[in-house]
Amino acid sequence: MSSPSAASVPFVPSPAVLGRVAPVLPVVAVIALMGLPSASDSGASPADAACGLAVLWAAVRTVREARRPLTRTAAVVLGLPVVGIAVAATGAMTPGDGITGLARYLQVFVLVPLAVVLLVRGRRDARLVLWSLAGLALWQGAVGVHQYLTGTGASYQGADIRAVGTFGPSDVMGMASVVACGVVALTALALGTPARRQRIVAAGCALALLVPLALSFSRGAWIATAVACGTQLLLAGVRRALAVLAAAGAAAVVLVGGFGVGAAALQERLTSITQVTDAPDQSVVDRYTMWAAATDMWREHPVTGVGLKAFPAYRDAHASLALSSGSDTGGAGQAYKRQPLLSPHNMYMLLLSEQGLLGLLTVAGSWPALLVCSLRRLRRAGRARDCALAATGLLLWQLVNFLYADIGGPSTTMTAVCFGFVAWWALAGSSATDPATEPGAESGAL
């Protein structure tokens, strides 16, 4: 009896391979679970549950290994947000708001980033995280393109064509955020990965993701992606930047001009970016009005703000009559409903209004520290240049996107993972750049 051919035997990772990647698998699971459809607008998602397990797993491993988990700098940078968040929680309107707000902020800006720092042990793990982000982006992007082509997306200008992936119309920024982070991660891999085949695959996938990113009709995500990827290209070299920009421009011309992918709607959306001061649409008017309301709240409570999750309670007392009662959402399998405007859609304004100067300085103040540390390590990245470019790009994307968005909804988990990856690169010590300190480094890069 002949033995089965090698092609018929399914690939099973060896115990050695599983042992090397086991510590980072909880982070990969968090990313993978973000691909599931969102069951509710504000409740906990499967990815949130995985975040809790990842934090627990990181704590258990750290105790079992009996090692010092963080440097002094890392402890200060990651622990600084706790101060402002805890103080703002005491000023919440109700104890329930204080507890839920405290848990959410700690999850996004402290606990999950800390878990990622502890579980990502070197370049191999970091690249697995980046490819996982890319895989999630490709999945969500494919769902989004299908929604546009079949008219089953979220409502946009009277047609159900807006690509929102599995996040639904209540989180229209969700797919855009995931796809944009995927573009940034793939751009870093295309520019810095040692393996030529992986560079080619990463570049092709990044260009493909520009289609669902465009069909998300998210102006903020477009701007943030352009800034992040442009910075990555410049850091990788001016000549390479010009070549990549030329390829991206040619792809855009073919997709929009040649095939007419969302041409009319995209042109209108792009034009609206330059009209935010001259002739803004209602969404922009609402955003300006809420920013003004957030500023007034801060002036009345300059040090500690109005308290966590208290922006909606103070909004009407500080907003002008230009503010609409909400935004219409619908499509993508959900009925039309009026979505209330519960935040200023600007993370910096949200921090200033709810947490005051103390929260702004402690929470947002840690982000420039991460950026400085990331750029300092970029100069000696060596074979980890893809990790360095990814960390810098992901952080820049978040900082720019926070000008137009804040935390909230199922896609917020992506923000937590990205901050964790950035913190790993910026603060985790020498293992990111020194092959001798990386587990399994003798086997080659991922």
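Second entry:
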Amino acid sequence: MTKVKVGFVGVGGIAATHLKNLSANEAVDITSVCDIVEANAVRVGEEHQATAYTNAEEMLDNEVLDVLFICVPPFAHGDVEEKAAKKGIHLMVEKPVGLNVEEAKRKQAVIKQAGIICATGYCLRYLDTVKRAKEYLADKEIAMVRGHYISGFVETPWYRTMSKSGGQLVEQATHIMDMMRHLGGDIDKVYANMALRVSDEIENIDIPDVTSVNFTFTNGAVGHLDCSITQTDHRMGVEVLGKNFRVTIDGTGLTILENNEVVSADAEVDFYAEQDQAFIDAIVTGNTDGILSDYTNGLKTLAVTLAANESQDSGNVISLS
């Protein structure tokens, strides 16, 4: 069997998880890696017997790739998606897909025109508990969707800078925002309040440490998401409310309450592994049904989080329609 030739742009952070999953996949050959930090590129290249680069364009010119994993910070995408797509290389783009909706739309158009397969890294959709929640909600009328992502400060230097990360909502809580969309439907209007309240001693920080966002969904439901970088532990989840029922994803666990009857379940899958397997299966078979977040979906979730930032700046309700 001919193996899928995979390259990486960015080898830090989440890339390590993808590299681990793909190195265990018999259908995959990791052939090249790229990182602006040469020592990291060389180290990961040696670990996977892959050619190391510090320039993504040079890698794309020199290598014959089937797939490219883009695992760079939000500000660092440049035009690598477009260049890879025009070469017919399939893409896995980590979240968020950028920091500018219009730029992401241009990338989306190039990806569509190229006819390639493109997944985005909203891995929580691949939880078996989330799948079960979505199936339960399929015929339900949803009244409210509540989400939270409460964690600590990330020491990575670019994270604290709004122009590079977009803030916690765009860079991290985007996972919960996406799950709220996945379970509750598309979002119509956004209104946000954010502040840097208790973390201004952090050098060069200009992102909020507390964020509160209200939504209206296109189906008429209302919603709310809180996120904060002020805590020493990590909590995240989504709660979906309707008449006489409540669906809760707490971390990765599921609880369904209906008419005072409770059903609970713990996740039994590695959602990162499920995501990567679904993507590689799509490349091998050409069937994309298993991909739960394509570039269009990544763009929609990005638009909601950036609308929240716009609402904070302007003080206005932002309409996505």
